[in-house]
Amino acid sequence: MDFFTRRRRHDRKPRCGVAGPHALLILALAVTACRPATESPKLPGTPGEWLEFEGSWNAAGSRRTISLGTERRGSILDLRGTMLLAGPKRPGVGFRSEVVALVDSDTGLVGRSVWTDEHGDQVFSELQGEGTAERNRITGKFLGGTGRYAGATGSYEFSWEWVMEAEDGTIHGRAIELKGRVLPGPAGVPK
Known about the structure:
By secondary structure, the chain is mainly beta. It has helices spanning 3-11, 21-33, and strands at residues 51-67, 73-86, 94-104, 108-116, 122-129, 137-145, 153-165, 170-183.
């Protein structure tokens, strides 16, 4: 027998003693997987009570524009960002936000938005606005959501300000005077 053959036979012996790092990782995963699922916290307030909020919303993304004549253009917006809400009975503190919208410089903006909170619960809304530089007031209407936002209704409004716009279509912007109110669905209010 040569050195390598003897070494392989020696490595095949069962090992006893302290568990290796892989065994500890498997044990840790098993313990956390056995915990009961946590329920999303309820929204503040009482059933039937409106939750009012103000906040800030910053987003970045892309805009693709086509010309619709000399004075008119159409654009598709794809934005992602963060939203922070304030107010004693706000529906949440921070959200990840996503927006997809179609803008016509003559007729305005139509879009959809998803806000996702720190628990993974989402609230959906539709956006409409005049979308022009002179009149850029945008309104949102809540369409319900998941988890504690299931069945939520209400509305919000803001004006949009472009902070940066590059020639390649990259854009950065923020909401000005964001405010609204939401009526939680049955799943979102404490009993």
